[in-house]
Amino acid sequence: MTHERKEKLENVIRKRQEGLGIVLENVFDPHNISAVMRSCDAVGIQDVYILNTKIPRHKKWGAKSSSSAAKWLSIHQYDNAAACFADLRNRYDQVFTTHLSSGAETLYDLDLTQRVALVFGNERSGVSEEIRVLADGNFIIPQVGIIQSLNISVACAVSIYEAFRQRSMAGLYDQPADSEYHRQLRAEWGTGEI
What is the mean pLDDT of the chain? Predict the structure, then answer.
């Protein structure tokens, strides 16, 4: 590995956000999943959880949509909601779903500087009732149009860029990257220690 390549990878690892994860529940279109992966990579989200309880696991992602982002992310696949949430509860303090309900908070009222996972549902019916019951609450992306929904990849991008904004303002992208999490990424990516 060249020095320049190692330096680029190290700069990316330093910005990876251990306390922020994305969950995609039964998302049908692999291109939507890939677009989400590309956005996650762009804001330093390493962990993407793909939960398929109603559809089979995807064999591959949309290469053009992801620009190979998947190979730089930690993709966790589940076919059991309880197992997925057990892992989420070990890594995150709160789990919020995107769901239009009377008790939903707006995206901008969430504290995304905390250890949080955001759940996005499938293209047809959104987040299932089963997952909403397991989560800590719901959030919505404020909108003023007639159609009160966004494409899943767009909804995810809007949400994680709000997390990026909040975390940047809180200085979380400038923290030392010397945790076990970051050391493991260095080992996986073959960059060695800093």
Answer: 91
Domain containing 17 — which CATH number? 3.40.1280.10
What is the Cα–Cα distance from 78 to 169, expressed in whole angstroms? 33
The pLDDT, as a whole number, for residue 1 is: 80
Neighbouring C-beta atoms of residue 191, cutoff 10 Å: 18
The answer to whether the beta carbons of residues 82 and 109 sit under 8 Å apart is no
Q: Which residue has the higher pLDDT, 67 or 127?
A: 127
pTM attached to this predicted model = 0.92
Residue 23: beta bridge partners? Answer: 49, 119
Closest of 3, 1, 66 to residue 29, by C-alpha: 66
Burial category of 117 from C-beta neighbours within 10 Å (exposed 0-12, middle 13-18, buried 19 and up): buried
Determine, yes or no, domain membership for 190.
Answer: no
d(CA 116, CA 91) in angstroms, rounded, equals 8
Classify residue 193: in a domain, yes or no.
no
CB 17 within 8 A of CB 51: no
| Closest C-alpha to 123, from 154, 88, 79 | 154
Please indicate, yes or no, if residue 191 is contained in any of the structural domains.
no
Q: Identify the domain containing residue 152 by its residue range.
A: 3-185
